[in-house]
Write a sequence for this structure.
């Protein structure tokens, strides 16, 4: 029979998401695995694939609309379905009201879907003025709209809903904030000081991704006991080997590719560092699954490359480039953003000499990689010039003790300074 598609839990602990773009239209045929829509969550932009073959009968959610996990978003007509089958699916579900957790769950095309109740009226603690101006009819909006309104002191009675049936959606709040920032709407914030009267500024509303980055990294920095270890790696031999590889390789290998490979091999040789904190246990891993920090217009995403220790440099380079390109284009799948015990953040291409990175929970380690620069060094008592790359390990002390971190960093440094070991 016809399939009712609901908003899936595209990432762990995400309770709502936005249909950023529909990649299909009503009447289009889709096969299993066909990209269906681009979904934006607080963590990332991911691509949603269809799990059923059929024809798109109806798209129930407008682009830009944020809905709770479990909300119906589309109807797919499978081969052989009659009009009665499709009508039955439509009549059995109200597309604008997410089902409550007490209702039986109809069949969906996503196994992880779960439900939350809909917010249907203004909160009781809004100001008397807001209550006086509220219409008597209920106004519909998603939980994220209500939260944004509270955070930015937006009077929802003054917001015109552009969603179905006048529903207030996220783009309406963003438009309201943009007007406020441009001076077309009186701000309810405290008046600026005399020092700020002549200062021009622009108020930029937070995106879901930026809000998630702020929340997660604040949590990491304040609740995870970081410690830092720094090493200076001489990379003359690595650069020489890389040059010889690239003379004959169809695909050029980057320094970052070789760094990621060295990280993976070091985790194999010091397995105590290849683990994460589990609250009441430590979870150890056999494979080296490495998250790569990728900068996008909306913020930082960290796709995970699996089994890096088994990949040769060419295959690893292709995987990193593919993940980075799809991350910037918002084409990553949700499973590619989860897992891993370790991250690599490389700012060397921006000319940064060295820095310390914040851990990406629940991962227990992240290596901050600086640029390879010429520096005076001492070799056998003689002063010479060499190319040196400074790296800093940030580690979770609940999982990685100082001695383990030092052993891991020494192993990594040995691999970088003896790069033939990366090829064996």
């Amino acid at each position: 029979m016809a399939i009712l598609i609901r908003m899936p839990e595209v990432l762990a602990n995400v309770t709502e998401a936005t249909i950023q773009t529909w990649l299909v239209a009503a009447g289009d045929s889709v096969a299993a695995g066909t990209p269906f829509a681009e979904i934006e969550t607080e963590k990332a932009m991911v691509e949603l694939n269809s799990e059923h073959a059929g024809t798109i009968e109806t798209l129930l959610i407008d682009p830009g609309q944020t809905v709770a996990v479990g909300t119906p978003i589309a109807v797919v007509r499978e081969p052989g379905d009659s009009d009665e089958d499709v009508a039955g699916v439509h009549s059995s579900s109200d597309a604008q009201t997410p089902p409550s957790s007490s209702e039986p769950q109809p069949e969906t095309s996503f196994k992880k879907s779960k439900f939350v109740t809909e917010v249907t009226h203004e909160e009781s603690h809004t100001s008397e003025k807001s209550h006086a101006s509220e219409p008597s009819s209920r106004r519909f909006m998603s939980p994220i709209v209500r939260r944004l309104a509270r955070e930015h002191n937006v009077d929802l009675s003054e917001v015109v809903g552009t969603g179905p049936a006048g529903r207030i959606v996220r783009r309406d709040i963003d438009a309201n904030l943009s007007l406020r920032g441009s001076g077309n709407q009186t701000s309810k914030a405290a008046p600026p000081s005399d020092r700020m009267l002549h200062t021009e500024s622009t108020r930029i509303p937070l995106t879901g991704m930026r809000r998630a980055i702020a929340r997660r990294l604040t949590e990491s920095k304040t609740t995870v006991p970081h410690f830092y270890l720094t090493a200076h790696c001489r990379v003359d031999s690595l650069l020489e080997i890389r040059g010889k590889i690239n003379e004959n390789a169809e695909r050029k290998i980057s320094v970052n590719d070789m760094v990621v490979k060295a990280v993976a091999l070091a985790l194999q040789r010091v397995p105590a560092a290849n683990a994460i904190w589990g609250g009441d246990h430590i979870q150890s891993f056999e494979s080296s699954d490495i998250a790569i920090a990728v900068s996008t217009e909306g913020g930082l995403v960290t796709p995970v490359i699996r089994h890096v220790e088994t990949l040769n440099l060419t295959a690893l380079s292709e995987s990193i480039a593919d993940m980075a390109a799809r991350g910037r284009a918002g084409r990553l799948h949700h499973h590619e953003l989860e897992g891993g015990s370790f991250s690599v953040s490389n700012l060397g291409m921006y000319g940064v000499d060295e820095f310390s990175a914040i851990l990406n929970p629940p991962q227990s380690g992240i290596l901050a990689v600086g640029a390879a620069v010429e520096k005076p060094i001492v070799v056998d008592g003689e002063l010479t010039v060499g190319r040196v790359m400074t790296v800093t390990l940030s580690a979770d002390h609940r999982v990685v003790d100082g001695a383990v971190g030092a052993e891991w960093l020494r192993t990594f440094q040995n691999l970088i300074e003896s790069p033939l070991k990366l090829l064996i």
